[in-house]
């Protein structure tokens, strides 16, 4: 978070520097255009005056006179131009300013006498009269140093303004970066100025207050739910243990009683896992890899009641060395919900559980629903007898333990898969 604030400060400073450089360059261009334009207008004015005098002299005496300025000459045609000027003029006859060789520079003015007089040309070689061009290097150097000074001042001003502007934002960012559900600051908004950052701080302060209240309610709920759920499970476990000691219980009854005891124990593990997830306590993230096949076989036996009376075949092709690094209750809950969902929704055909391309796949012949919808809580498929929480629990477990669950299929089949070792 702090790095981002520093980047914001640097961007503000860079914006000031770029803006100052652009302004300095623009005004430097204006200065150069201005001085060159003034110099050219000066020569054009001198040529205008001399041309008028030459035309008056030609009208009075019939000849061109010698110009008053030594750097000006009159030519009857362009054939008598200096060689460097003639070459440039022949190439671009519409121009009136030419750069010659050896530092010479020419300005031209056409002389068009009245009547049938022969036109002429007034040529001014102004290399010795130039003021701006000899000082061009000094002018550019002055503009460059001035622009650099403006940029430095802009960077310093931008640094001061950026630091002053981002200081409260940096404090707020550090405060937010240190927040946790069990570490939420209270009443920090009053330490911030009454501006946009203060509005943001007040909004975050109100939000943290609501989060603290929500966390308190959630803790109270999980504490009460833990008590309310564990109590009937303890009663069931105690009653089944006492019932198991009855001497007149039949073999079939003892078998069903064993299923009830096993289901009660599994439900107790499920309650513990769900309550732990709800409280965001640290469930082992680096659990040792567990063998999938024994848990899968146990789940298939437990969920077999969902296939009673259905023409469905179950095929399990999972090697014994396939493992998944999650806690035991989590693996059991994951497989129980996926296998139970496949058994419950398959009316006929087959349920095939295998491993391919490093993924454990549970395929059944039931049509697939929308993958984004079926993982939502209380989203029930056709014929479902549950509450629509199974795949929602699976989705949450996969998010918590970084399991890449995929549910794919067509209108004739559904495949649920996740990566295994």
From TrEMBL:
Coiled-coil region(s): none
The keyword Chaperone is assigned to this record: no
Alphabetically ordered keywords of this record: Kinase, Membrane, Phosphoprotein, Transferase, Transmembrane, Transmembrane helix, Two-component regulatory system
Enzyme class: transferase
GO function term, MF aspect, one: phosphorelay sensor kinase activity
Principal location listed in the UniProt entry: membrane
GO cellular component, one term: plasma membrane
Cross-referenced InterPro entries: HAMP_dom (IPR003660), HATPase_C_sf (IPR036890), HATPase_dom (IPR003594), His_kinase_dom (IPR005467), HisK_dim/P_dom (IPR003661), HisK_dim/P_sf (IPR036097), TCS_sensor_his_kinase (IPR050428)
EC code(s) of this entry: 2.7.13.3
Chain ranges passing through the membrane: 12-36, 139-162
Catalyses which reaction(s): ATP + protein L-histidine = ADP + protein N-phospho-L-histidine
Ranges where the HAMP domain occurs: 163-216
Cellular localisation: Membrane
UniProt xrefs under SMART domains: HAMP, HATPase_c, HisKA
A Pfam family recorded for this sequence: HATPase_c
Stretches assigned to the Histidine kinase domain: 224-421
Protein name: histidine kinase
